[in-house]
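User: Structure please.
Assistant: Input sequence and predicted structure:
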Amino acid sequence: MTGYNVAVVGATGAVGTRMIEMLAQSTLPLREVKLLASARSAGQTRQFKGQDLVIEELVPESFEGVDIALFSAGGGISKKFAPEAVKRGAVVVDNTSAFRMDPEVPLVVPEVNSEALKAHKGIIANPNCSTIQMMVALEPIRQAAGLKRIIVSTYQAVSGAGAKAMAELKRESQAYLAGTPVADLQPEILPCGGDKKHYPIAFNALPQIDVFAEEDYTYEEWKMINETRKIMEDDTIKVAATCVRIPVFAGHSESVYIETEKVISVSAVKELLAKAPGVVLEDDPSQQIYPQALNSVGKKETFVGRLRRDLDVAEGLHMWVVSDNLLKGAAWNSVQIAETLHELDLVRVP
């Protein structure tokens, strides 16, 4: 039989579940799909193309005979087991932050920098979900007019913080609507499970994703800044980010302001985006047509609209960018990378 043996690590998680769905829809030739998770999940089953696949406990030997391993089980798991997978001949596509800024590891959005895959040494990193959708929207513009500055404000769904955060939003919303005072909502997860204080997300907006780091930017904001520069291979580009969690279950939205190196008209940008791979242009203010998070859920594309020139800076442009953070922002981008590895004949460890 032809095709690849593919392992999904973290198969029971929100992203892992969607990786399985995306594999079922992909063009990647498959021989076998292996589902891996913690010992407590071993023995459970998941559906794949009408078959029940039994989840196995993740151990180093799990990767014997595996060609491609898709990881989404947390950075610690990736750091421990990705090298074990590579040692056994698998190519790893990692959806955590574990290897993103490693200079030896390509950070890839297939529509933007698939050529970077040619330098892989067994591990490829999937960028942060917010970075991915922004890169898909900006790359056609960068190719045509250059980019010198990006200012992005994100409005991120709670699914980016995991299943417990989604449950927290649901619980708090029901309690608040039932008359529970804000002081009695007792949040446990958001804005960041690893920080000292927690605040309600229901009917709220929290300008903190991950913990605070240098210059009072959060790690999420630094991820967007540093990953953008790495993907574009440009350390000189000016990037600033403000990342906000909002009470939406799925679908990240972004307000993006850019300054191009040369002036380009809004109509020219719309024409570029209408033809760009992975982009859907939704932009007709006269008919109130623009991207919405709710409409992005379950879709692989990145949606762009509200394109308009800046009123003070000739090279300035504003836009609104929306995508399903669990699909294009994670599971689908990972499977796309695997498809591209196949197309470029790179499913091998050097």
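The chain has a mean pLDDT of 97.
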